[in-house]
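Hi R.,

Here are the chain sequences for the assembly we discussed:
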Amino acid sequence: MKKLLAGAAMALMTLTGGAYAGDYPDRPVMMMVSYGAGGATDFQARIVTMTAGNEDALGMPIAIINKPGAGGRVGWNWFATQAEADGYTLAAYNIPHFIAQSIKGGVDYSADSFEPIANWGADPAVFVVAADSPMNSMEDALAYAKENPGKLTFSGAGLFVGHHIAALQLEKAAGVKMAYIPTKGGGAAAMKAVIAGDVLAGVNNLSDAFRAREAGNVKILGVFDLERNEFLPDVPTMKEQGLDIDNASVNFRGIMVPKGTPQDVIDKLAATVPEMFANAKVAGKMKAGGSPMHIMTRNEVKEMWAAREATLKELLAGL
Amino acid sequence: MSRTQHIIPSGLVFAVGCWVAWVSYTQQPADAFLFPRLISTAFVVLAGWTFVKALLGWSKIGTGIPRRMAINLAPGLIVSLIYVFWAAKTLGFYTATTIGFFILLSLYDPAPHDQAKSWIRRAIVTACFVAVMYSVFALLLKVYTPREILF
Amino acid sequence: MEFIYYFGNVFEPISLLLLIGGTIGGLILGATPGLSPTMAVALLIPFTFQLEAVQGLILLGAAYTSTVAGGAVSAILLKIPGAPANIATTLDGHAMAKKGEGAKALQLSFLASAVGGVFGVLLLIFLTPLLAKWALAFGPSHLFWLAILGVTIIGSLDSASVVKGLLSGCIGLWLATIGFDDIMGAQRFIFHPSLGGGINIIAALIGLFAIPQVLTMFAKGRQGDGIEVIEVQKHAIKDAVRELLSRKRAMAIGTAVGSVIGLIPGVGGQIAGLVAYDQTKKFSPERKKFGTGHPEGVIAAESANNAMVGPSLVPLLTLSIPGSPTAAVLLGGLLIHGIFPGTDLFDNHPDVAWTFINSMLIGQVLMCLFGLYIAGMAAKVAQVPQSVMAAVVLGLSVFGAYSVQSSMGDVYVMATLGVMMFFLERFGFSAAPLVLGLILGPIAEANFIQGSMIANATDGMAPYFLGGGLNILLIAIVVASIAYSVWMELRQHRITNTPQEETLV
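And here is the predicted structure of the full complex:
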């Protein structure tokens, strides 16, 4: 009898356990984006997951759920505390945003609350001014800032997001005081403030700034990255313009799951998701939308998170 | 309508207002609470005025809750609260909706309760409603609602 | 006149099919509680992956147009505004439905929507460059004053008691501050984990309007006389047209206010309907009838919220700045096909740009036709017994609130607010000013903080918030609005008081 029971238990375990690893996913998967519908992160998340239903990818569609608010804090807080760690709830991450926010405090997550799966994109921050602005280079902008300390207003998408990190780096490297104006409503609102002349300059996403420049609305004065970007070969980096700024503000976007998700599910996702990103159709749509891609595997992302956390701790120590 | 009936809601609103003001003026960082302070001040003043008016028996607007209404309301309210706050999550949306819908319909349907015909009609209405909800939300819009029992 | 050249594209078989499909689908999605136009358009984006750029945009444009109008169906018949744009429609629309004039209210709302909508799209076609400058003129200080203008409406929205109306508004303003502060990121008033993300406006709308309805139906008990609820009298369409023509003032004010406010990035869509409703009420000789099922209320609100559709796309199409969440989603639909809004769009892809705009023009007309058809059907469908209606609305509210962002927390917030509102309504509080507070709070706060940061870095608070032509104009309107309300209040008192004194004597 005991044997029979044990056997039945074993059978049940293999049945349920086996079904889990082998059949995952057997229903549509949900992916939380902590920014509003139509924002850069949302837009890219929808593109990179559009082939999830294909047989060579997950075989099940990924549905995007938006939980916007407070620079992403609302969504990630929900993800860390309330999302079920069953592999059916994924989230998009934005580096350096959530790491910077967790260092600053007041949120329920840190880099240890999540398990990265793969990275799909890297969107550097750029420094923009309106098309009719008298400033034509970072030199002009910084000269203005030195003459009028604290009076050069420049917009960005919020506090402790990539744009803010870039702003802090700029002030530190140039040794000037400027007025960073965080806007509500993400990069689009920050860009509107620049074009409308509400502020003198702004930090914004490369992809959005590239589009605004194509429309003839802004000038891009510098890129907060180590190298020039393929979308903007004519725009120099900050380093080329004599400012000691690295790539700490580059906005990396990718997929993660909550800590506690079964290891076999993580392994399966880590193996299939980078391939899904590499799909030619995805790459074509991303390029058409002006969004730079940068695919990284789970292990590479882990390293990147750790490195970023160290740099950000140093940068934010004084605040 | 009695004066006591007006005192209770306006008193509660006044209490909430005081709590909001207290939190706004004590919490840090002060910058983030600038706007709540402004609102809570107006909140407390207006709520206080309403409360005083109710105490003096000057409040006349609104029909209040007569006894008859409370008796009618109670079963529906209780079933609804159980449905929303407990059953929907625990039993799954569709199971809970089927049960909740049927109970509410049975409670408030004026058709005779001792005839099989009217019970069958209620069951059919319930089934139709759940079928429509399932096809709109699960099939068309692909919303994955909590599903614990059955579907 | 370039746009006429591209009209042919709209009438290609596939395009026309998509246009009709998008319109019908949009009406249904719009009528579903919990699905705002933004959500509906976002849901349709995956379908456009398979389509060509022009076709995809036709689908999205048609859906945008008709979801805004479709929201009127649930607003009128069930008193559940599908989106903030339809709040003002519930005020008189549902009152009309209760009087048995549901079909008439629906017909008027679709006709008014079409007139307003066509006017809005024509503005988009002919005045885009001019309007773009206008849209950009609104900086943080101006948006702040605009939000304050909205606040001044709060008191007059509730005719029963000005103090309780203002108090309801304050409760709404406070509810809006719950959650993370958007700029600083500080946590405020999060006393339950469900509130971590703040109060979602759509979930709140459903709770505040629908749940009191359900409870009111329960409170009537088991009614012996059977079928009673929304009985809809048949109403001829030509009578509705005649009615609309006799209410030109409401129509004109609604359309004008909707187009102007719709233009302003970040504010427009949500308050256009309410501001238009309030202005129409102030200018109407029949002010007293508003809120009791007056056709002018429905006409003003619906013409405004569809007139907003065209102008709200101006900042997107010309400057590549999405002025509303829906415009942001449409931007995604364009980018996927490698089309960048702005000069690029009109210079290099005129076929896409103009076909899209034309499809919205035709979409408005189609929306009106299908809408009128639905209004005719509503006469049959809405004869539902009260017990069934109560259970249906409750079920819809739960599913609707959940589907906004797949969150149980939103359902709890919806139900809590709803039950609270039911009891408060019994004592003279009302939902409309509360919701207005909920919408305006974040706009006023964010723009005040942002404005004061800019002001402190540049020329100081007073010159920044009080200087400049546009600021002064807006402040003047705010003062005039308050003065007018006070004056009307005083006059009303004198009228109601005089007979009482006579009886005392």
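Chain A has eleven helices and eleven strands. Confidence is low (pLDDT under 50) at residues 9-20 of chain A.

Let me know if anything looks off.

Best,
T.
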